[in-house]
Design a protein that fits this description.
homodimer, 425 residues, alpha/beta, Carbamate kinase, VC0802-like, 2 domains, 4-stranded mixed sheet, 13 helices, ATP binding (chains A, B), nucleotide-binding (chains A, B), Aspartokinase (chains A, B), EC 2.7.2.4 (chains A, B), lysine biosynthesis (chains A, B)
């Protein structure tokens, strides 16, 4: 018996029938003796439809007003979800981000949570009610304006509320059974991870895995909130995202060396060709890109050719920011004196993630061998303490992911396949 | 130069193009040197669509949650309207009912305004911004829950804000040119009233005229707010609803005797046949109807027949409440001892309204003669100081309205017809 925060995304509440199904699930949790706080996103495609409406009216809508508009989406879903729960005989009360005490800064469209003061939620729980909270939104501390948290916002709302209410668990409901060792659409033999550390989850999210957003996992790690990622279509256990260094019984099973293989096709590569090999040239290039508001990912600088004293610098960035970065670099060509720019959006990134890498040598060697054996050419490499990433041709991504997954014995066994069968993965 | 509150209904902001047109009109008012506060309803059919969604999820949705749901509609319209105004080069800031300081009681779905504390609106105006306020909604004083004001709510919001801000005028925009002497769909020769008193407007609203809601006019009368009912499709003057007893230049033209002819087809008639003529029987009947939550309108009790000592009692009521009233009466038949009930929804009400009736004798005689000459049979009669209403067959309503309109010389003259031509009436 404890306090459970559940988060349901837009696909879990896409229409009236789905809302009723989710309501039943919430009531089941309540009937099991828990206090329940539910965070809900806007129904189905509502947010996209509202953005389309804004675009029809204004090519560059005011950020404050766009936030006001978009928050209508959660207002609709939370109200109908509360209605559906009432029909099942439990009191449910819906709360906007502001009413739930989600206090943010004033950065409309990408506000950060400053504080959570869930007094009204606590009162509702004390009155035996189920609290339904609008995800993705808050109210700014200074101007009391409605704000939105940006991408992954509802997950962050859920974890922030779980922390403020000292919840036992934050359950994130999705349309898959949990976090897998690879994307099951690419690797049918991918297996569900019963548990994974915050650090590995952060690396997977940063490397293109779509299940949890970075901010949400960072928040959970900071406050030690266990996240349970699970399917809204089954009652099976999903994946627990937890602190695996904690001295709890969670460490009594041997930690796997490798958690999984992530991939990302949303990046592009820019190569600045023939940069004069002088102090400060690279800094000038990356400052220009940063000033254009572009976050870069991997960077490779070749050794200078002895005869020309010039070098090439390659880096990856989100493909959507490609235009902005190229414009910024073109504008400084004369100043820096580089020869030309190359833009390549036919790349993909494949990453191997595992906390066990720290203590197991030979991981890199096996990783590169598996790619070589599969005939995949590596264009760039970057590593962290618990991750190796490579940039390859986009066409090679599927082959690379499958090869690496097999090489590290991540493929599901036949016994496990029976267990996982028919869970709607 | 002054403070103008403008209210636009759902049909004025039905889509992106309509929103942009309204934005231009608002900016024109601002550019003319006025401070502008805009109250807006939900776009087009949004409210009906949200009600349908609620019905899909729950047959009897919680009143609190239904209010939370419906207020999403104005949130959308006000945000996109603010965006459209920004694009025209003026700052616009949208405010929910709560942010605008519309404080209500806790009667969800039909909340009454208790207080208006428009501090944030005043601040926005002082900062040279246009304030956009969600109509139809407020926040409850006790529980800080979101409430809605019920039918006509946005008009009431506009008048209440106009009163709190000491506005010079409250402009109610609609799809006709103002208030007419009769419904132009029935009487093509109906003429626009340049001005009308609060009292007459209240009578017209109570008698079925659809332009302004009772609550809004009552509020305006109490605080002396001039209402200007006008078309959102033209810049012509509409109808000014004002206090015609005030010693201003508004009284320098002779006040017309008759303001107009209203009609209402939404009522039904119930006749309780053979009620024993004893003290307290009528009271018992009407108490039962009231306890069923039904408001009755006109009542007629016949003189008892001397041979039976029994009488018939007829009354009219909204046809939508017919079932509830019949059930309540049937349940008390044995107790009261009446003979039978007759239900008739084939009736209509025709009313003649004019403040000048007070001082001009002979109005009733002319009214009844005109109906008799047109061959219309009168079933019930009721009068007030400035109104005469009759119940006739529903099929006779058009004939009756036209005949009365002509008899009192309300038909537009040929010269006036040219003036009104082509205004999109």
């Amino acid at each position: 018996m404890g306090l459970v925060v559940q988060k349901y995304g837009g696909s879990s509440v896409s229409d009236a029938a789905a809302v009723k199904r989710v309501a039943q699930r919430i009531v089941d949790t309540k009937n099991a003796g828990h206090e329940v706080v539910v965070v809900v996103s806007a129904m189905g495609d509502t947010t996209d439809e509202l953005i389309d409406l804004a675009q029809e009216v204004s090519p560059t809508p005011s950020a404050r007003e766009l936030d006001m508009l978009l928050t209508a989406g959660e207002r609709i879903s939370m109200a109908v979800l509360a209605m559906a729960i009432s029909d099942l005989g439990h009191e449910a009360r819906s709360f906007t981000g502001s009413q739930a005490g989600v206090i943010t800064d004033s950065a409309h469209g990408k506000a950060r949570i400053i504080d959570v003061t869930p007094g009204r939620i606590r009162t509702a729980l004390d009155g035996d009610a189920i609290a339904i909270v609008a995800g993705f939104q808050g109210v700014s501390q200074d101007s009391k304006d409605v704000t939105t948290l940006g991408r992954g916002g509802s997950d962050t709302t859920a974890v922030a509320l779980a922390a403020a209410l000292d919840a036992d668990v934050c359950e994130i409901y999705t349309d898959v059974d949990g976090i897998f060792t690879a994307d099951p659409r690419i690797v049918p033999a991918a297996r569900r991870l019963p548990r994974i550390s915050y650090e590995e989850t952060l690396e997977m999210a940063a490397c293109g895995a779509k299940i949890l957003h970075l901010r949400c996992v960072e928040y959970a790690r900071r406050y030690g909130i266990p996240i349970h990622v699970r399917s809204s279509f089954s009652t099976l256990d999903g994946t627990w995202v937890i602190d695996q260094n904690k001295g709890s019984d969670q460490t009594d099973m041997e930690q796997p060396i490798i958690s999984g293989v992530a991939h990302d096709r949303s990046e592009a590569k820019i190569t600045v060709v023939g940069v004069p090999d002088k102090v400060g040239e690279a800094a000038a290039i990356f400052r220009a890109v940063a000033e254009a508001g572009v976050n870069i990912d991997m960077i490779v600088q070749n050794v200078s050719a002895a005869d020309t004293n010039r070098t090439d610098i390659s880096f990856t960035l989100p493909a959507k920011d490609g235009r902005a970065a190229m414009d910024a670099l073109t504008a400084m060509q004369a100043q820096v004196g580089f020869e030309t720019l190359r833009y390549d959006d036919g790349v993909g990134k494949v990453s191997l993630i595992g906390a066990g890498m720290r203590s197991h040598p030979g991981i890199s060697a096996k990783f590169f061998s598996s790619l070589a054996d599969a005939g995949v050419n590596i264009e760039m490499i970057s590593t962290s303490e618990i991750r190796i990433s490579v940039v390859v041709r986009a066409d090679d991504v599927d082959t690379a992911v499958g090869a690496v997954h097999r090489a590290f014995d991540l493929d599901v066994t036949e016994v496990e396949a029976v267990v996982y069968g028919g869970t709607g993965r």
